[in-house]
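Our working data are protein records whose layout never changes between entries. An example says more than a description, so a record of this kind follows.
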Amino acid sequence: MELQTLDTLFLGNKAAVGAFLMNTQEGPALFETGPASSLEGLKAGLLGAGVSPQDVRHVFVTHVHLDHAGAAWWFAEHGAKVYAHPKAASHLVQPERLWSSVKRLYGGMAEELWGEIRPIPEDRVKTLQDKERVSLGDVQIVALDTPGHAVHHLAYFIDGAIVCGDIGGVRYGKKGPAVPPCPPPDIHVEDWVRSIDTLAALNPSVLFLTHFGPFTDTKEHLASLKDRLLRFERFIQKGLEDGLDPDTLKEQFENAFRQEFHALGLDEATCTLYERINPPWTNVLGLVRYIQKKPKGEQPKDA
């Protein structure tokens, strides 16, 4: 088994949004697709790997957010089966509600960012339960129910490797930190912590991040991700307790975000890439919503 990282060249950015190709005895399998706006970049990556895009037979998406599954419909139209969480299937088959949510969050930027979205025929969608196995010849792919970033999130365990989606965070470059993307609507910190623990318990040899690429320092990566997720929650919790208005809270969070990156020695281009793919303001919106929905009196938990 070998997973090859493909760069979708999202909005012209190199190494920002990836997909992962695996050749199997049952045909080419693709993990993640990126959005339809970067479909041509993904097609070019497939051709560069010696695979015709029309020949992809299996598409595994971690969740239906458009930077991960927005182009899945194109592969389904060319005969691929799309594998997803049971709670994701309805959004793939009838994407209107998903698109409405995207439009509310991104406004007039939605189409430029994500491109076209089309429904996938129901008979082309295969839902996977927690720990369900898919056999593609001699390759075994194990679905892992990993909520926290989204209630409909799967990771995929393949011979010691894990395709993480967003539950494994965003990380750019070896020096870059592992950062949890926390957009609305269904961030759940406690679930996310449990999902990180699920991945860590498998002692993976490599983590494949959609944003971006493979990382082999898996233990350190997951521990750092958990720590930063809990620090993000505490930061927003304190801001709300201090009575900060939304704009001030967003400004303070963004400043703290950037100060930490500079302290780690990241260059300006890498800082900008983190902010473009994981905008700080969406983290504030997602975590405020989560905290305000929590039972009264429940406090953020340390790792």
